[in-house]
Amino acid sequence: MTPILATLLAAGLLLAAPLRAAPPEIPVEEPAGFRLTDYRAPTPPGLAGATTLDTGAVRALLERGGALPIYVQKLDRSSLPGAPWLLSKPFRQIPGSVWLPNVGLGAPDPATLDWFARHLERLTGGDRAHGLLFYCLSDCWLSWNTAKRAVLLGYTRVHWYPAGVDGWAEAGLPTEDANPLPGPQPAP
């Protein structure tokens, strides 16, 4: 085959192949309020008043004891008196985490908001400068909403980990069984 024929053949193959460019990623803007629905979707690159961390930075933060990790995965509750959480499958979390379910919902009920505020107060010993790390799953607004809520409560060292336990596990880092704290009591 002559060099000219080979060049023409290669050019023809390139022209015949469909061009598949990756769709451009549209950045997600930080909303003024909370995300109210579709919690498993791309999130903004950051959160005003909080520090957004990748897996390496989270690992370093936790190794030096710089923050308390708080897992905020949503859970359903029983309609029985006392309303226990319904664990339909095992959940995993970053070691040493506290699991506060449903505090990342866009519009939680007043009892859940109070429960969240009381637990943060207890877990930090009332120190608004105590480091807090909020996470859920990857592409999950629950952790973004929760971190925003902590900022609005006056906590000054709020960290948000958008890759969540998914990113942690994908990096080959250890996880542990997750057990939620008992939920808020229903109003009488």
Automatic annotation (TrEMBL):
Residues 94-177 form the Rhodanese domain. CDD domains: RHOD. Keywords: Signal. Residues 1-21 form the signal peptide. InterPro entries: PQQ_CXXCW (IPR022376), Rhodanese-like_dom (IPR001763), Rhodanese-like_dom_sf (IPR036873). This is PQQ-dependent catabolism-associated CXXCW motif protein. The lineage of its organism: Bacteria, Pseudomonadati, Pseudomonadota, Alphaproteobacteria, Rhodospirillales.
